[in-house]
Structures are given as structure tokens and as C-alpha cells.
Amino acid sequence: MNAFGLAPLLLILPIIGVLFNGIVGRYFLDADRSTGEKWSGWFGTAMAVGTFIVSVLIFFSLGANDHHAEIVHLFNWFNIPSGNFTIPWAMQLDTLSSVMTLVVTGVGSLIHIYAIGYMHGDRDFHRFFTYLNLFLFFMLILVTGSSYLMLFVGWEGVGLCSFLLIGFWFDKPKGEGILNGDAARKAFVANRVGDFAMILGMILTFWAFGSMEYEVVFESALDLYTTTETVFIAGIEFTIPQVLTGITVLFLIGATGKSAQIPLFMWLPDAMAGPTPVSALIHAATMVTSGIYLIVRSNVLFEIVRDSGHQLFGIVSAPDLVAIAGAVTAVYAGLVAFTQFDIKKVLAYSTVSQLGFMIAAVGMGAYVAGMFHLVTHAFFKALLFMASGSVIHGMEHGHHHLHEHSHGDDHEEDDFDPQDMRFMGGLREKMPVTFWVYIIGSLALAGIFPFAGFWSKDEILAHSAYGLGVGEATPVFTFVRWMLTIGAFCTAFYMTRQIKMTFFGEGRHEAVKHVPESSPLMTRPLAFLAFLSLMGGALNIPYLTGGGGEEASTPVGMTASVLAAEEDKGLNLAFEHWLEHSIQAFTLEEDFENVVGPNGEHFFTHVPHTPTSLQYDIAISSTLIAVAAILIGWYVVFRVWPRSKEDPDPISQWPVVGFVWTFFQGLPLDTLYMTGIVKNIFNPLARFSDVVDWNFWHNFVHNNLIRDSFVALADFLATVLDPKGVDGIVNGVGQTARNLAEALRRPQTGNTGNYALSLFLGVALLVAFFVFAS
Amino acid sequence: MEFQAPAINIAIILPVVIVAGFGLVLMILDMLMEDELRGLGPWISLGGLVLAGLQTIALWLGGSYETFIPVGGHPMVVVDGYAHFFNMLFIITGILAILMSMPYLIKADIDEKAEYYMLLMFSISGMMLMGMANDLLLIFIGLELLSIPLYVMCGIARPREASEESAMKYFLLGAFASGFLVFGLALLYGATGSTALPVVVENFTAGGVIAYTGLAMQLVGLAFKVGAVPFHMWTPDVYEGAPTAVTAFMSVGAKVGGFAAMIRILAEAVPQESAPIWTTAIAIIAAATLILGNVVAISQTNIKRMLAYSSIAHGGYILMAVAALPFSGDAVSASLTYMLTYMFTNLGAFAVIMMVEKSGNRGVLLEDYKGLSKRNLGMALILAYFMFSLIGMPLTGGFIGKFVVFQAAIDANLIWLTIIGVVTAAVSAYYYLRVVFYMFMFDGQGDLEFSPAMMTATTVALVATLAIGFFPGLWLNLARTASLASQLLMAGG
Amino acid sequence: MNVDYLMPYVPVAVLLGIALFLALLLPILSVSLGPKRPHFRKMQPYESGMTAVGKAQRRYPVKFYRVAVLFILFDIDIILIMPWAVALRDLGLFGLGAVMIFIAIFIIGDLWAWKKGLLEWD
Asked: How far is C110 from chain B (nearest CA, A)?
């Protein structure tokens, strides 16, 4: 018995939200501003919360189902009976997709609530929630699809939503940063490159294995590999490792596009031009992690390539390439983050850097560690983004306040930018809640014990240092290890810099004096995420005993069977136990123990395993590094409090460091890539879309067909229905519950006779039920 | 007819004999001794409980699964893993309750020292009978032995009016409910020709509508004890008026005792083919209990009253597992696990509340929790953790309890009930977090009164809740072994 | 649903139903149809023409209750000892032991109640 049957609701609920907000949202807003906001916002939120509840039920069902995956078949997309060829449209509910749906819908729900507060007063409030729900829909397709095809549909869809949401404020004037529209296009182009690689990879998969269903592909890949058969693609014979190298490298390129890795990472920092809830949801917690999900999902393919030792052009094997790309990105983005002044861009580069950690992890075969970091990162990065949104919100309010009280001579304020940290300082006392959650998020990100980031980051580092099963740590592993260590140093450093610039010292702008704390609608989700950032590490606490290099360097390591035997010993590695039912790489070693190839070879004798006990040397050294970075950062950054925006960061004047600083501030890769390409592609496209969107969609469909009919309904809702019923719901479910509570509590008169009467009525009902039911 | 004196295995009922015997000893002590010696009351009862606990553990480790047959016929008592588990729960509840009562009675100026602990011991022995009973008559006796001391304990803070009122209400309504229980017993006896559960189950179907009516009435009596809607009305008034130490004790002991007997009856005295009928009824009651308990708690301003509604709601979660009994092999162990976590969390929360409370039943409003974090951060954090556990946040014992219960309910295909459970759990966050909010976001005055005994109780509860939250495997195994080593045969899936 | 048990009671049930129906119907009719002219005198309880003295619900001293409880305890004592007495010889030493334990517990309780002043009237 289970709740798998409810799975289609995951897709239906967001679509209801999209339809509601997309079709009628505008007319609600037009009819009555505050009513419209409530309807749009809370309706969208309700749909998100609904998907979360379904995710929770599926989570429990998996537990009740002994963690076995369940494939919910929706319908056949198309079907060619003669060729015995169908492409089913199905949802694969297993422990891996369950983790993703929980993160997506859980963090998503919180961000919906936050967005109601954040987007308050925005002209296109309903449009924002339409996009958010649409994003949720595609993201859930992406993570629950049972084939690469479905994954790709979601993949494209979230890209579209990302594009729409980055450009949400397309008419916002150019401030310090990039125009919203340009940022959106940049994201689109970068993603297009990645998506093209994805398509090629999928086609190659289909040619080689005749299917795009995960289970079929993995099964036949393993089968063909262990029988050392070959496949013919376009008439040319390839061995399986060759084909899979091609596929995995193409998937890697796809992942670098979506997950913002070198060489396709530069769109993400600019994507921060979009509204902050979008940055938190899409560009920190969920969409950008889909590249990691893709690689984890395809773990079998990567492991086959790793096992075969096949190397791309004889230089480097595909999984190693993944690890290297991630590691290099982690350091590069970490360095760039040093130089940024925009509060959100620092976080954006930090996200790129952390995604590098995850990519490096999955490239090394530490699939659980990568997913673990994905989950904890979703908690604390969403927290940081939303907290920075709270800061920006506050700065805008402060600036607004300033304006009101000094009308006339506001020309000197023209260059004010609420996101620029050079204008901030001293916000600690103005926004205590935001400050504290920011501190928690930063400590988690910097990897300080016992915050969530400590556990997940350490697991990755431990894997790179003691990656078990591959024999001696390979040069690639060592390279990754040191790169990631540098990356960890950078992380702690730029977060210290940011906190010092934002919250400490004195306000460097008049506006700071008038900054208010944000509304509870915004701070409550923050507090909740802060709790998760604090405790999230406990998902996968390693064994605290045994540690050290000795046990780790024993070649056997912990195989899946040992892990299984360890089950029920507590919360240790709970996440790993949960995921091992979906990640086949865990069991490859055992499954193929007795399989001998045609030429007498053995397979999968060296599948990497992450050490299961805490590696104290790694843990202590990385903590020390982080602490050192915090101390150095605290000492170095703005040692002399600057009085105004013009005072340069002293770091830029140091001998060698200053040069590096200036170099990275110029965003070398970004400039190289952006000049020319994007604009030339987009000008014609823009014209075309303008015609379609404005003339047809807006003028005709909206104005003439839909609007008039709904204005009446919206009027009705706003004037008749809303003041009574809906206000209750919307002023928080709490209020409704409180009203209900009052009503329910009225029978509680305190009169014993009444109590006895109600007891007797209960008896009568129960007896009557039993009598008639029998 | 020649009468054969049965070979009575006293050892297996020794725990309950010890507890009741120490109650008698306290009675004699209360009669004969001077006031100074009466102060020994709590220590004597603690000693008795520890002895009984050791005996239970010895029996449990001995792996005994035995029945106690007094004089021919069917066994009155079944001492299986299930009974051992409950005996341990009651003994621990008793120990914690005594630790909390010692300083509390002094604070609340309650003088009846030996008397109070005597009543407590009798009540615990009644609870233990509820877990072991294999006969409707014995269940009734256990229930009365559990309840009557509690009625007196509620009123022990006389001449405080609230305390007297709570005792009176509890007594009147409790007697009313017991009446239904006895009536149900009579009907079941009439319909099936026996009060022994194994016989009742054989003749149940033949008993027809009379048997069903009897079952319904039995359920009424037990549902009253566990505070299930619509038999919950007494709970808030009684919990609020009774001395807090008694509230803590009965919010756990009486409820768990009621469930111990309810699960035993439903699993053993009712045949599988009747399952759809009674599970529907229980599921509806569970849903009503969940909704009412969690919703009404929102509008409470007195923390004891709030926890009263919260305990109603927690009863609802256990009822979810009860409704899953015939359809899920994990339902019994799920309910055991839930009760285990509930016991520690609730007792811990009450311990902190007692420290905040002032003499004369003051200091029990939510208002009084304002700024607790500034007065004593440690206590505020501990109470916050208990609140998180009551919500069922991950990494607390409460989460593990809710987790297994939901899983059992889904396993039994009670999806609608699970949805209600999940949603009401989310609603419950509202009022539990309000306590946390008051503690951390406001300023306020007043000191906490510490005492070694109270701190011991708090620490034990906290450590246990943490341990369940962080190392659930051990405890889940414990509950599973206990449920498997019993004759609750329905748990077949 | 097994109705065999209940068949003989069908006439009773019918009678009950009619009685219930009438008992509900007549007051409802009189309340809804009858004229209402309340007057102080009319609201008084009917005491055969006498003026009412005090309220109908009077408070009893709780002492009566204490004695009643004690009575019930001895009652139960008898209920449990009587069967033993009837089967005294058959049950032998085992029965004697059992009943002695029971009586011992009972006596402790009695003594305790005595000591606590339950037997004193004032």
C-alpha cells in the first residue's frame, strides 16, 4: 500500500497554479490590488505546498516499500506498434528523485511564501507566481522523469523559466550591473550550448542502446560492456567505453551549462539581476543543481567509463574530466567572488564555486557526498540569498525613506544601488534577525563545525583524499583535493568579507539609518532555513569512530553489503543508506564479482567508495583553514573603515594579491565570451518575439479575449467574496485556524453536565456505527 | 470436582506485585510514622520502581513469553515482549514523575507526602496491569486501579479550587466512562460467553450485533482514558486544574495505559474479518482527534491547557497507528515507538514548565514565557528542543515517532488519514513555535527554580529524546522486537 | 446483522418509539402553539400550593459520601469472600493463602482510612 498513485499530482498542481495566475491573475490585480496579490500569491504557494505534501507522502511510501523504486506510467508519448517501439511518459519514484522532489518542493514552498512579502507591490505580481509555478512544474518533470527524454523536457523547461525570471524586470534601468534583458539572453545562450550537447548525448544514447529509459539504458550498457560487445553507430563500429565516453562528455557539457561550470558558467552571476526569490530558488537551490542530478542519475555510465580506463584522446577519462572541471571552477569562482561589491554577485560566484565542489565530487564517484552537499547547499544558499534579499529590501526602504524626507535635492543620490555593499555597513543593529540568520548561513557555507556545510564539504574532501577502491589516490584526486582546499579557503574568506562589509562598522550611506527589519512573512522562512542549515549535517553524519588514514587506506573499504549490515545502527550515514537504493554504482562491485568477461577479465574491481568514518585529519585541517580564512579576512578586509563608496578596498593595493584582485575583477572569461556573440544572435530573435508577444498575445488574446470576461469575476471576488472568506485564508492559515479554534472551543464550557452529554452522544454515534456497519 | 492448586509463576508478575507492594508499604508508613520519616516516601517508591524495572529487564532479557494462569481456564495475564515494553514505559514514567514531584510538591505547598507517592504507585500498578491483561475483567480492574488514584491526585492540591474542580470533573466523567466499559464487558460476555480475550475472538462473529455493541462500549471506555474526540472534553479542564506534576504523570501514564489495553483488545479480541468496521471507526476518531486537538490548541493562552490539547492531538497520531493495525505489520511497533518518544518529550516539557511555574498555580500562562531565553538560555533551549520534538522536526525523537506512524498508515493504505496527519502536524508547529517565539523574541521577568531532582528528570528526558532523534535504529529495533515477541497475531500485513 | 436476539423485543421497541414520539411531540406542540404569558407566580415551582422554601438542589455534606464509599468497600469484600467460603474445603490451603493476602491488603486499607479519620463524623 502506498501513495505512489498521487505522483501525478506533482505535475498537476503546479499546472493549476500556472493556469490560475496566467489566465486570471492579471484581472484580479487590476480589479483590486491587495486582493489580487493575496489570490495570486497564496494560490501559487498553496500549489507548491501541495506538491511538498505529495513529496512527503511519496517519501514515506518509499520507506514502506523497502526503498524499491516505483515507476508510475502516465501515458505513452508515442507508439509505433509495427516497430514495437514506444516512448512512455512515466515518473520514476526512487530514493534519488525523492530527495530531489523534497528539496525542490520544500525549499520552493518556503520561497513562495517569502516571495509574497518580497514582491509586494510589484506591477507584475501574478506573472511572477505564474513563472514560479511553471518552474516548479518543469523542475519536477526533470527530477521525476523515468527517461532522458523526460529529463530533457524538464531541462529545457527550467531553462525557459530561468530566462523568463531573470528578465522579469526587463524594463528596469541599468544600474551598476547588467540590464535584466541582457542577463536573461546571456543565460539563454550559455544554456543553449549546454542543451545542444545534451541533445547530442541523448541521440547517441538512443543509437547505442535503442532506448532512453534509464533502466533500459543502464542495463544494456552494463550487459554490453561486460560481454565486450560493440555497437554500430552510423555504420561505424565502436566499443562501449568509446561510446560512453562520448555520451558522458556530452552530458558533462550539458551539466556545465545548467550548473554553471567552466566554461559555461558566466551567465549565473549576471542572472542575479532577477528578483531575489528567483536567485534563491532557481539559481542557488534547485535548477543549477540539475547538472549534478544528471550525473548522479547516470552514475552507471560514468562508472563503466572509469572502470574501462578509456581516456578521451588518450589524455583524461570522462569522470576525471568532470572532477577537474568542477575543481577548477570551484577555485576560479571563489577567487572572483573576492572582488565583487554586489552583495548578490558574491553569493552568485559562491554558488558557482560550491557547484564546482559538487561536480568535482560526483566526478570522483562520491555520488552521495555530491548529493549531500547539494541538499545542504540548498538550505544555506537559499537562506543566504533570501537574507541578502531582506538586506536589499531594507536598503531600498531606507533609501525610499530618505527620498521622502529630502525632496528636491535628490540628484546626488542618483548612483545609489541597494545591492552595493559599499553603501552598507552597520546593518547588524538595524536588522538583527537577518544578521543572525546570515551568520548561520555563512558559517554553514564556510564549513565550520557543526553546521551543515562542514559535514558535506568534509565528505567531499575526505573522498578526494582517501577515495577508496581506486587504489592509490590518483593524481587527479590529489589535484582535486588541493584545488578544493583552496576553494574552501576562498569560501570562508569572501563570506567574512561580505559580512564585515554589510553588517559591521558604520553605515556608509544615509539610507542605512532608515533601514527597517523585514516583515515576518520574509523572516520566518529565513528562520526555518537557518534551523535546517544548522542541523542539516545530521542527515549523513559519518561514523565518528575508526577514522584516520589507516582504515581509510585499506583497499577493501566499505562495500554496499557492509553498509547494509550497518543499517539500523542509528542516524549515521542515513542519507547514504537512503540513496544506495537508487545509485547502482554502490552495488556494481558485488553484482559483477563473479562475472568474467569473454577474455577472462574482471569488472568493477575498483569502484570508488567514500570513507564511512569521519576523517579527523581532513576535518581538522579544513576547519583550521576555514578559521584561518575567517581571521585573515576579518583582519584584511577594510582594515580602515572606509568613509564612502569611493575609498578603494585596501586589498587591491597589495603587491601580488592586488594584481590578482584586479585581474579577476575584470572578469576575463566573461568579457571574452560576451563581446559580440550574444547580441548578434539576439537582435533578430528579439524582433520576432516582439511581434508575436506584443501584437498577437498581448493585444489580441489578452485584451480582447480574456480580460473583459474576467474583470467582472475579479470584481465579484474582490467585493463580495474576499472580505469574508478569503481574507481569513489569506491572512495566514493561522488566522483561519484560530477562528476555527475559537468555534471549536466554544463547547468547552467547563460544565460537567455538558461534557457528560457530549460523551454520551459520542457513545450513541459509535454504537450506532458499529451496529449498522456490522 | 477435584481442585488442583495451579503452579503459579509469581516471577512473571513480580514487577506489578513489587510496585503495588511498595504502595502498601507506603500506606503503612503513612499510618505509623512521624512526619520526618514520611519524607522518605519518594525514595521508597523510587526504590520500588527500580526493583520492578530490574525484574522487568531480567524477564525481558530472559526472553520469556509466558502466561499466568491463576485457577484453571484461560490465562488472565500475558507477559510477552509487548507487556515488558509497556511495563518499562510505565516504570520510567513513574520514576520521572517522582523526580519531578519531589520539588514540585514543596513548591506547591502540598503536604501529603507519603500519600501522594502511594497513590502514584497504585496508579502505576494499574497501568502495568493494562499492558499485561489478557482478560476483559482484568483490563477493567487495571483501568480502575489506574484511574481512582489519579482522581485523588488531581485534587491533592486542595483547598485550591481549580484542583478540586479538576478532581471532581475527572471523577464524575471517568466514572461515567467506566460505566460504559463495564457495560461493554457485560455485552461481550453475553455475546461470546467469556471474558478471556482468546475465547472472545473465537465467538465474536457468532455474537453478532451484541458483540459489536460491546466492543463499541469497550472502546468508549478506553477512548475516554486516552482523550480521543469526542470523549476528550475532560482533558483541558483536568490538566489545567491538576497540580502540574500530576498533569505530567497522567498525560503520559493514563494515555499510554489506555492504548496498551486498546491495542491488546483490538488485536486479540476481534477477528480479522471485522477489521474494516472498527478500523473505519478508529480512523474517523483519529482524524477528528487530530484536527480538534491541533486546531483548538492554537487559541490557548495557558500552557498547561495548550499541552492538554497537544496531548489529545498526540493521541490522534497513536490512533492512526491503531487504525493501521490489521493491515500493516509495522503498526504495533510504530505505536510503541510513538509512545516511547511521546513519553520522554512530554515529561521533559512538563519538567521545564514546572520550573517556570510559581506557587499558587501562577506562571503557567504563555505570557510568562516571554524572555525566558534571556533569563536562562539553557532552559529555553531545552524547552525549545522539546517543542521541536512535539512538532516532529527531524533530529528529534518526535520525528521518529511521527515517521514510523505515517509509514504504518501509508502501508495500511490510509492515505487520507496520513494527509490529515501531515497537515495537522504542520498546523501544530504554529502553537508550539509560539512558545519558542515568546521565549526568544520578548523580554520578561521572573526566575526559574532549580532543584537537583528536577534537573535529573529534565536531563534524562532530554538525553532520551536526543538519543531517539539521532540514533533511532536502536529504539526502533527495541519496539519491533517487543511487538514481535507477543501474540498480537493481527500484525501480519 | 444478527437480529435473532432482538426479534422478541420488536413490540417493545415499537412501544418505545411511540412513547418517545409522543413525549417529544406534546411538549413541542404546547411550547409552540400555547400562549405564553409569564408571571412571577407561574414561574415558581409547584409545591401543592405552599410557598417554595429554598432551592430544590441542596448541598449534602460530603461525609455521607465517605460512609457510602466505605460501605461499598465492605460490600466488595463480602462479594469476594463469599464464593471462597462456599468452596472453602475444595480450595484448601491455596485458597486460604489467597484470601488471606486479600484480607491483609484490605485491612491495611481499613486501618489507613481509620487513621486518616474517615470514621469520625465531625
From this structure: 11
